[in-house]
Design a protein that fits this description.
The chain is an alpha+beta fold. The protein folds into two domains: 418 residues, Creatine Kinase, Chain A, domain 2 (2-Layer Sandwich); 81 residues, no CATH class. The protein is 36% helix and 18% strand. It has 15 helices and 21 strands. The strands form seven sheets. A six-stranded antiparallel sheet has the order 6-7-8-1-10-15. Strands 3-18-19-20-21 form a five-stranded mixed sheet, with helices on one face. Strands 2-9 form a two-stranded antiparallel sheet. This is Depupylase/deamidase Dop. InterPro entries: Pup_deamidase, Pup_ligase/deamidase. Belongs to the Pup ligase/Pup deamidase family. Pup deamidase subfamily. It is an enzyme of class 3 (hydrolase).
C-alpha cells in the first residue's frame, strides 16, 4: 500500500530595510506577485474552506462551533491564495507565506516536492523585487514592498514558532490510541536525524546554547489538538481530506523545517515505515518513555547523543538505541524504503561515534560544525555572529544561504539532481489526485472557481450551475487513469464531463437556479 504524504512549510519572512513592515502584507505581496508572474489571472481560483474541518479531533469529538466561510477572495490581504500547476497550494497563513506540497506516494517524492517549495518561494520574492524596482505594488492601494528575506526555519528568536508540518494517511482499522502510544517514542528521538539545529535555549532563546531541534522547546503535552499553543508530541487534528470512514490523516507538528535532503528524506521515510509497522500489528510498548515531554527537550540538548532516556519499565536507553529498535521492526518494501533504512543505520553509527561525522548529511550537525569554528576560536555561543550563522543557514536564497554554499562546496551531500526539483515546482506527481488538480490549473485556471484537496469546482452557466468534482481517494484521477482525458478535453467543464462518463469520480451541480 502506498503511504500518501504531504508537507506544509510556513516560511519566515523579514524586511531588513523596514522592520516595521507588516509580515501579513509582505506575505500577501509574495503570493500575489507569484500568481501574476506564473500567468494566473487576478480573478483566480478560490480555496474551498467549506470542505475543511480543522477542529475535528481524532479522539472522537469536534470543537467547531461555526461553519467556515466556504470561499474567500484569493486577493484579500492576509488570505491570498494560488493553486499551482504542480497541484500545490501557495498562500498566506497568518503572518507567513506557506507552501503546501501536493500529495505524493512515497518519501523520495515528498522530499522533492517539499524542496520545490523553496523554488516557488524564491520565484515569488524575485517577482516582488521586480515590482519594487519599478516603484509599483501588486497590492492595490499599498506602497511597493520593501526588500524581502525568506528563511526556512521555525523560530523568530522572539518567542514565536511557526510550523513545518507533515501529513500521512493512515488506515482507520488501526486504533488511534494504539498508534499514538506506539509512535511517541519515535517522535521524541527522531530529532537526532532530522533536527535543523537552533541557537538559543528556551522559547525566546533566553539562555545561551545550541540544541538539535527548533521545535523542542515549544512542545508542552503528549497529545493535543492545537498547533499554535499547547502543542503536543502527537497532534490529533482529524481532517483526512479523503473518505473519513476508511482513512485518517496523521498531522505531524513536531518536526523541523529541513534544508538537508537527507534529513528531509529520513523525516518522511522513517515516519512512513514506522506507520507501516504499527498498522501491521508490530508492538512498541516496550519503548514507552517515562516522561516523553521532558525527553523531547533532553534529546534536543544532548549534542553528544550519549545521554540515556528513562523508559516506563525502568530501563535506560540512548535516543540512538531507541531508533535502532524502531528500524529493526520496520519491513522495507520499495527501493526508497531500503535507501531510507540504510541511510538511517549509517547515520546512527556515525552519531554514536561522533555526531560531527554526519555534518555532510544532517542539518543540525552541519550548522553545529559551522558554529564550532567560531566558538573554538574564542567567540561565545551567545555572540550575535553565532545567531547570524543560525539564520543564514536557513536563508533559501541560493546566492546567500549557508546551506547552499555548503552544497556548492561539496560539504553537504544531495540525493537528487536540481532538475528534478525544478520539474516538481511546475509539474504535479503522476500517481495521486494532485495530477488532476495541477493539470486543470495549468490548462484552464480561469475556469476553476474553487478547489480544495478533495474537490474542484468548475464554472458553469446560469442555467445548470457550477460543476463540482469530488476526489475522495488520494489515488484517483492519476495520469494513468485520466491523462488521456486531460488531453482530449476542450475545456474544464468538458474534462469533468469525461470524468463523469467514465465514472472515475463523482460530479454534481451546485449554485444553479433553485440550488
Amino acid at each position: 500500500m502506498s503511504r500518501f504524504i504531504g508537507s506544509e512549510t510556513e516560511y519566515g519572512i523579514s524586511t531588513p530595510d523596514d522592520p516595521t513592515a507588516s509580515p501579513i502584507v509582505t506575505s500577501t505581496h509574495t503570493v500575489l506577485a507569484y500568481a501574476v508572474a506564473t500567468g494566473a489571472s487576478l480573478r483566480r481560483t478560490r480555496w474551498n474552506f467549506g470542505e475543511e474541518s480543522p477542529l475535528r479531533d481524532a479522539r472522537g469529538f469536534d470543537l467547531r462551533r461555526f461553519r467556515t466561510a466556504p470561499v474567500i477572495d484569493p486577493n484579500t490581504v492576509g488570505v491570498a491564495n494560488v493553486i499551482t500547476s504542480s497541484g500545490a497550494r501557495f498562500y498566506v497563513d497568518h503572518a507567513h507565506p506557506e507552501y503546501s506540497a501536493p500529495e505524493t506516494s512515497d518519501a523520495m517524492q515528498a522530499m522533492i516536492y517539499d524542496a520545490a517549495g523553496d523554488l516557488v518561494m524564491n520565484r515569488a520574492v524575485d517577482a516582488v523585487h521586480q515590482y519594487t524596482a519599478r516603484d509599483e505594488s501588486v497590492i492595490e492601494g499599498q506602497p511597493p514592498c520593501p526588500a524581502l528575506k525568506v528563511y526556512k526555519n521555525n523560530v523568530d528568536g522572539k518567542g514565536a514558532s511557526y510550523g513545518s508540518h507533515e501529513n500521512y494517511r493512515w488506515n482507520r482499522s488501526t486504533d488511534f490510541d494504539v498508534l499514538t502510544h506506539a509512535i511517541i517514542p519515535f517522535f521524541v528521538t527522531r530529532q537526532v536525524l532530522i533536527g535543523a539545529g537552533r541557537v538559543g535555549l528556551g522559547e525566546r532563546g533566553e539562555s545561551p546554547g545550541f540544541q538539535i531541534s527548533q521545535r523542542a522547546d515549544y512542545i508542552e503535552q503528549t497529545v493535543s489538538l492545537e498547533t499554535t499553543l499547547n502543542r503536543g508530541i502527537v497532534n490529533t487534528r482529524d481532517e483526512p481530506h479523503a473518505d473519513a470512514d476508511r482513512w485518517g490523516r496523521l498531522h505531524v507538528i513536531i518536526g523541523d523545517a529541513n534544508m538537508s535532503q537527507t534529513s528531509n528524506l529520513l523525516k518522511f521515510g522513517l515516519t512512513s515505515l514506522v506507520l507501516d509497522a504499527i498498522e501491521a500489528g508490530e508492538g512498541f510498548s516496550d519503548l514507552e518513555i517515562a516522561d516523553p515531554v521532558a525527553a523531547v527537550k533532553q534529546v534536543s540538548r544532548d549534542l553528544d547523543c550519549r545521554k540515556t532516556l528513562r523508559l516506563a519499565d525502568g530501563r535506560e536507553l540512548r535516543a540512538t538505541a531507541i531508533l535502532r529498535e524502531y528500524l529493526a521492526r520496520c519491513r522495507p518494501v520499495s527501493d526508497t524504503d531500503r535507501l531510507v533504512l540504510r541511510t538511517a543505520e549509517e547515520l546512527l553509527d556515525d552519531l554514536d561515534v561522533d555526531p560531527l561525522r554526519t555534518s555532510d548529511r544532517l542539518d543540525w550537525t552541519a550548522k553545529w560544525s559551522l558554529i564550532r569554528r567560531f566558538t573554538d576560536s574564542g567567540l561565545g555561543i551567545g555572540h550575535p555572529k553565532i545567531a547570524l550563522v543560525d539564520l543564514q543557514y536557513a536563508d533559501i536564497d541560493p546566492a546567500r544561504g549557508l546551506h547552499h554554499a555548503l552544497v556548492r562546496r561539496g560539504s553537504m551531500r544531495t540525493l537528487v539532481d536540481p532538475e528534478m526539483i525544478e520539474t516538481a515546482a511546475l509539474t504535479p506527481p503522476d500517481d495521486t489526485r494532485a495530477f488532476f488538480r495541477g493539470e486543470i490549473m495549468r490548462r484552464w485556471p480561469d475556469q476553476v472557481l474553487a478547489a480544495s484537496w478533495d474537490t474542484v469546482v468548475v464554472v458553469g452557466d446560469r442555467v445548470t450551475g457550477h460543476h463540482r468534482l469530488r476526489m475522495p481517494e488520494l489515488d484517483c484521477l492519476t495520469r494513468e487513469n485520466c491523462g488521456e482525458l486531460v488531453v482530449r478535453a476542450t475545456d474544464a467543464a468538458d474534462l469533468l464531463r469525461l470524468v463523469d462518463e467514465r465514472k472515475l469520480a463523482p460530479v454534481d451541480l451546485i449554485g444553479g437556479p433553485g440550488r
